[in-house]
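Q: Could you fold this chain for me?
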Amino acid sequence: MMELVIGGSGSGKSAYAEASVCRWHSHAEEVLKKEIPLYYIADMIPYGEETQEKIRSHRRMRAGKGFHTLEWYMGLEEQVRKNSRALDGACVLLECISNLTANEIYTEGGAAGNTVKAVANGVQLLKESCDHLVVVTNDVFAESVPDSPEMRMYKENLADINSSLAEMADRVTEVVSGVPVPVKMNGEAVCSVMENGKMGQISDMEKEHWPGKNHGMEKTVFNDPDICAEKPQEGGVRLITGGAFQGKRAFAEILYPGRQWTDGGVCPLVEVETYTAIDHFHLLVRRWLEAGRTAEELTGKILENKKDVLIICDEIGCGLVPVDAFEREYRETVGRICTALAERSSRVDRVVCGIGIRIK
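A: Sure. Below is the predicted structure, expressed as structure tokens.
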């Protein structure tokens, strides 16, 4: 069993991940009537006082929980092969993929241009070597300020790795303000969240031991067959959102094949009301504002007499508030326009780590 846990800075993902692996560890020892190894793979290189304080904080969090710490900063696949006997049957927490990715890209002797393959292969081997694996990664994909070439390269690598890990994981959980939100369960994407008290396909053990139980998530319906099989409605506004590099376009092309796509970063603004499938809508909004035009005008052109339009837009409202006044206006305008479009949409989907989730 493998669970991928994703969340923003300070979201509570570490606490959730520790609770998750500890619950599974306790259950395994109870069932097997023997001691099971519990490992914490730490990959944050201790440089600078700020980093060292983060390491001390994480050590305090897991103190007294029975973890044995393994400091593996790079070369995960090689480390797993060297320690395969010790990992056999163990419960393991790996934290976190964003650090491991940076180490492999930027540290001398790291995987550099081969980072995606190196990290993904290492995690795959780790999953095969232990009994239960929880992997933590960061959501750094929803900021509005344009990336430097170096930051874009890092984010693309991390996004590709996250998507690979989500595909191999049995469960993917996004942690938002300390609340675990299911993205994938039992190897299948979550199709809907509904307040009807059903548990869908979650096993009895998961009902009892899943940390999300204490957050009211026992009301979640997973893999509702009617919803999953439903053909997307024809006509109206359809919105697909999510962070940068999450696979929104690939998801859209599966859901709505044969579309003629317009790129919001370069398309003529004067023809906006004629477009039927717009990618990079957030860039269209930026260019619209730069031209001195209003959000209300853009929203109106899209919604008025529009029978069929598909929109893909990056979530850009997270991260630090930009210092530049235009960047602040741009970030807020994208959010407000998408809110208006979602209200009028016949369907809204959100993509996380390559997994599409219908939210309306």
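A (continued): Residues 13-32 form the longest helix (20 residues).
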